[in-house]
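Aim 2 progress update. The chain analyzed this quarter is reproduced below.
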Amino acid sequence: MTTHESLADGNRRRAGVILAVCCLSLLITALDTTAVNVALPAVGHDLRASVSGLQWTVDGYTLVVAAFMMLAGSTADRIGRRRVFQAGLTLFTVGSLACSLAPTLGWLIAFRVTQGLGASMLNPVALSIITHAFPDPRERARAIGLWGTTVGLSLAAGPVVGGLLVASAGWRSIFWINIPIGLAALALTAVFVPESRAATARRPDPVGQLLVVTILISLIFAIIEGSRQGYGSVHIIALFALSAAAVVALPGYERRREQPLVDPVFFRSVPFTGSFVAAVTAFLVLSGFLFLNTLYLQDVRGYSALHAGLLTMPLAVGTAIASPLSGRLTALRGPRPPLVAAGLLIAAATLTLTTLTPTTPWAVLLIAYVLLGIGFGLVNAPITSTAVAGMPRAQAGVSAAITTTGRQVGNNLGVAVLGAIVTARTQSPGRAGFAAASHPAWWILTACGLLIAVMGLATTTPRATATAARVAARFPTDPAPDPTTASSGTPGVRDGTPA
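Predicted structure tokens:
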């Protein structure tokens, strides 16, 4: 074997370890998003939490991830990706330990926020690290495909893993499992992941970041607390108004910046806007389904956390089968077929639950789980593909980051909106049972599935593609990096240039 071949093999092995580290970080953060759902009844019983308190246990985490993900990505480009990645792993691991020791619900929510801050530093930065570890386009595509598959599988498998942990060691064990994985990832990162920075880092945008945080926090707080305080109360109306004002102010401010946090021009591209809407909608469906289904199986049907997790395994299996197929189908036929199929399958799954009762036959539930799992497995690859379609290489990462933020926004809205609907109906004078109270929520999820299918059709027409080309023409193109210099695997590399 020549020296060149030996070096090439060594670089491939190193890149494989880097991919494994990034997938490990994604595994624990994505699992944490959904595994907690199956533990909610146990948390509520142990810490005497209301439904709104349980909503904050989930949304306290995902809200922070959504609010600070883009900031973390741009900061990593500026000060070093490995440095930010290690900080994220440390915060997430320490936050997990603190969650496992939380004495009250308030402390648990606060520690979940700490976890969320750590997680916001991991996902976008991990994708940048992978991109620079695999300079060959084909190898990079396979690596990102594996990374993306880890997302879907982790999210779908969360309830199963959570059920096993809660049944064997209690709800606190959901957080224990993150600690050894986080420590292992930290050690591997220190040894194998090279430091890198963007050749031209984006400037900080504190005002844009503040507006994003204001939009999300005021909106989610108003939705969750409005079901308890009343949507006509002065505080809740003021929060909705504040969120709306920030929504109006954000594009106006960002248009005046040379390097905005969220460039409004992107949304003139129909494919990009459609992918963002589909991302929000798909993850609203998943998070809303998991939240409602967990409470239904345990509080209404009386199943343990273990049984509830195992009963949703068909969802995880459907996602595992469909995720790789979706990537291949998107590569061969474009994003339209998998997006349309995903939307219709999701709509069919949730439609079967619009008449849910305490005695709904298991055959109906299992069919819904399988259809939803396959639909969710199909949706991720075409969303990412549509988001970056037609964008110059220099803007592909930013557009993908905005779409990833949309996924987290969907996670927040699913728990907040559907939880608020059920809470309002169960606390109304008629006091409907949980199953009956959830009927409007299932209809909303059915409409979401149809919206995804519509996005699949609307974003792939020649006219829609032309809007993406017009947006792309507004940005300067950049030459493809030389694979012999890009991401050389040497510590202190700045996109191939010594720092």
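The two ends are 32 Å apart (CA to CA). Residues 61 and 413 are 13 Å apart (CA to CA). These observations will guide the mutagenesis experiments scheduled for the next reporting period.
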